Amino acid sequence: AIVRPTPESEAELAFEGALRPKNLAEFVGQEKVRAQLQLLLDAARMQNRTPDHILLAGPPGLGKTTLAMIVAEESGHPLRISSGPAIQHAGDLAAVLSSLVPGEILFIDEIHRMARSAEEMLYLAMEDFRIDIMVGKGAGATSIPLDLAPFTLIGATTRSGLLPNPLRDRFGFTAHLEFYETHELEEVLVRASRLLALEIASDATAEIAGRSRGTPRIANRLLRRVRDYALVHDTDGLHAVHAALELYDVDELGLDRLDRAVLSAILARFDGGPVGLNTLAVSVGEESETIESVVEPFLVRVGLLTRTPRGRVATKAAWRHLGMTQESPGLF
Ligand code: ADP
To answer: Which residues are catalytic?
Structure first.
């Protein structure tokens, strides 16, 4: 399997933390979502209640966690961070919910991966700030109601389509985060270089921004690689950008190895498609969820892939981008 570089090391996480915008005004782009969140927060403040539950949907690295932190910061309430995979039983969720303080913001990342039983508990909690705790088993089982402190749930998901309707319906507001425009990513990079006290030419930031897959996290990470390269090789500017990006297998469109592996599988093994998601996932040795929520959205956005009812199809631009040609159909 091809592993996408993730910010797993302590250093990478600290680096991300340092660059996280602290309030809505510092948050670059997503104007609509920012205005909507601002209204939600102002209304809650004026009515002296907790803000509505918020669902943030979109590919990784577009700012979902950052927005949750900003909502907590701006509403002046503490933030509790959990994630779907960490909630494997209703009891895991009950433990978190029953310990929330009034007004606390509960952020559940990858909420679509939460256990089914916990999901059902969450419905009642979101609606009435109450849960029922089951005690005992079989005929003697009883449920004990437990009142919760009022809280705001912020759920994040890479695919809102995966959430069951009853859960989706209980969010007062859903924000779909879009990929960022290149000029917005330049702004992210200018801000990051200022915070890191890096001097970097504007043609260099423009080049990095254009190759960042529309994703602030990737822009910041590439900036760091370019800085490393410039430091080690005692060079700078565009030269360092090109050399570092080549070293890390980022191409002119910003596609990384996994993006290209998926495309070239469709082209070389399935003659451009259509090919089903699962077949495709197996042929590149990745999970279908990763293909669907991480790889495909960007390929679709740059016009290299289309999703059809019969499967995934590579576009003409994909053949051109990978420098491959489609064999003309033979006579027999
Ligand atoms: P997600 O939770 O959607 O995967 P994060 O909120 O963790 O993404 O964002 C990843 C990194 O990208 C953060 O460290 C932050 O510095 C940066 N980032 C994300 N969105 C923005 C933005 N709109 N403006 C500036 N930086 C951003």
So the answer is: 64-65, 109, 158, 217
